[in-house]
Amino acid sequence: MTAQLPPEPICVRVNEAARMIGVGRTKFYELIAAGEVETVKLGKATRITTASLHDLVRRQRGA
């Protein structure tokens, strides 16, 4: 029997996104302000697309 992994979320909270890439909240908000990651507003909540986190890491690896 093959165990299936749960699907990766499309969006995560700011704290979770910062943890995923290993930076603090302040640095992460700087990345948001610089347009380095994509945010989505769901009501009052701000979410970060996991695709934009992958893109950020790819861009940084190429720099």
UniProtKB/TrEMBL annotation:
Supply the name of the protein: Excisionase
One GO molecular-function entry = DNA binding
InterPro entries, A to Z: HTH_17, SinI_DNA-bd
User: Where, by residue number, does the polypeptide cross the bilayer?
Assistant: none
The Helix-turn-helix domain sits at 13-61
Q: Which organism is it from?
A: Sphingobium cupriresistens LL01
Fetch the Pfam families from UniProt: HTH_17 (PF12728)
